[in-house]
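We close this part of the discussion by returning to an individual protein. In the encoding step, the backbone of a single protein was reduced to a row of integers, each denoting a local shape. The sequence in question and its structure tokens are set out directly beneath this paragraph.
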Amino acid sequence: MKKLNLISSVLLAIALAFIGTSAALAAWGGAVNARDRADGGWIGNDDPDNVRRPHGPDSVWQDLSLAEWDEPSHDWVYDRWNRWGQAATALFNAEWQVKGLGTQLRIADQFYYNYTGVANWNYPYSKVPENENPLEELIQGYTEGDGEINNPNTIIGGYNYFIDYRFDSEKIAVAGSPTFNSDLEWCDNFFLSCEPIDRTGMMRKVALVQ
């Protein structure tokens, strides 16, 4: 009987420890758990491919980050401080009638996250970000949210633009993954063909939080 009680006590202690740890992993109150700056322990890069075409924003200002929120709320990915200079806005003014600016956020792999279709942004948008085709996401292996700006000529030089994407919390707590990539694209005005003009950030989670 004593042996049985001891086993029960050990199992109870393990269960309580697991519950306490799980609760801690799932509650972070909006704290940042990823950033595209490689300082302070963050796993990321503000200019992953070191390529910025003439239409791209000034890389110095970009900041991609992940905020973890308590369950059952949602996590947010913030793509902020996108600022264009005079040369880029001149190109927007010259080409906007046949071109459009696209925003893109990709999260690999899509089994951790699901884009909710909710975004907060101050771009002069024509279509808020929406999910890529689910079959394409499955084949490509990542969640993708794409937005469209039909009138890039209305983008103001020297102004800070942001886009915040809301995602369902990941299915399991992970550290060091998944990988978040933000991109800006220069597209035809039907957004059928696009070319990257700047990868504005890449990051991975630092801490094991759901």
User: Anything to note?
Assistant: The CA atoms of residues 158 and 203 lie 25 Å apart.
